[in-house]
Amino acid sequence: MAKKQGIASAPKGKLGILLPGMGAVATTFMAGVMAVNKGLAQPIGSLTEMGRIRLGKRTSKNKPLIKEVVPLQSLKKVAFGGWDIFKDDMYDAAVHADVLDINLLNKLKSGLKKIKPMKAVFDPQYVKKLNGTHVKKGKTKMELAEAVMKDIAKFKKDNKCDRLVMVWCGSTEIYIKEGPVHRTIEAFEKGLKSNHKMIAPSMIYAYAAIKMGIPYANGAPNLSCDIPALVELSKQTQTPIAGKDFKTGQTLMKTILAPGFKARALGVDGWFSTNILGNRDGEVLDDPDNFKTKEVSKLGVLEQILEPDLYPELYKDFYHKVRINYYPPRGDNKEGWDNIDIKGWLDYPMQIKVDFLCRDSILAAPIVLDLAIFLDLAKRSGMSGIQEWLSFYLKSPQAPKNRYPIHDIFKQLHKLENTLRYIGGKEIITHLGQDYE
To answer: Which domains does the chain have, with CATH numbers?
Structure first.
């Protein structure tokens, strides 16, 4: 069979990665890329840098690096920028975040010092626990969106970037339900001009990026680009989008464990989850309105994986509770504790306890990298709209309105890998026929 031609054009020039919200996650990501480029550390957790993919039959044992199969942007040719409500440069912000060792940060100090945040779009009614001082002013939300677009254009010119991507790394906003203002581009733009209260700052950034044809990913549970107006705009401007909410600690464990229980037809009576963390995210989520947004994101995972309507004997009445507690001494080192009550043969009960003492930003940083690099790949491949193949990285994956999102991490990985095979012009693996050989 003739070799297929890959659909992605080769990356040319420099890629600019723009980050609204330049706190713990963003600084850990940027410092990490700098450390990797200097040979000081390994990009562990990043599929774009370290992941491999099977090609062809299992007997061929052909598993090259993903970056050898599809044309990915080199980390040597990236530039960082973004916005924050505090004016600290990225060295000072990283020191304040207290995620990375100061000895490592000092080796990266000159590069981090050069990156200074632009003034952010911020409104305390959406994030009540924060009080930013480095903030844009505008009479309308449309003026603020236009100011963000000017920032983007200036950053691209000043840093001599060929292409851009944007990844939201800001805080979780208060819970907002989709409404009429979100349903059409016309209604949304009218809402921007009239300062509609249902348009949050993350939506302003998403609108600015998508309007300019810049791929956008949402790393928080906010609606952001997950509204019909911006999905439609992304198709018009041929822009790939992805969201929502980086899948890092406790939810990562749920999407690994729950598929295993279901695969073995083990019942689940209850799943109690609690978290303690002390970073800025924990402080923000200490407010009930902001926690509601996160709670909705975290609660939907098990329902979709276990499908209680199809397996009522196993999951119909299972109880799922999620709590997040702000505990300053823990800092960025989040602890996610799960008590899982399962049942086996003849309804005999069993328990599983999981105590994941994780590092939130350490787990999130490679997700930021992969989303940025893969969205750029999608753009160069002529893909637009919701990129469901990137659900692998997200707690509450964005999906078209007529489809439900997939949460099972193994199904997500299969979709991601087949999409990469398609982009790279390789045979898709279906596990039928010769794929077993």
So the answer is: 15-246+361-423 (3.40.50.720), 250-357 (3.30.360.10)
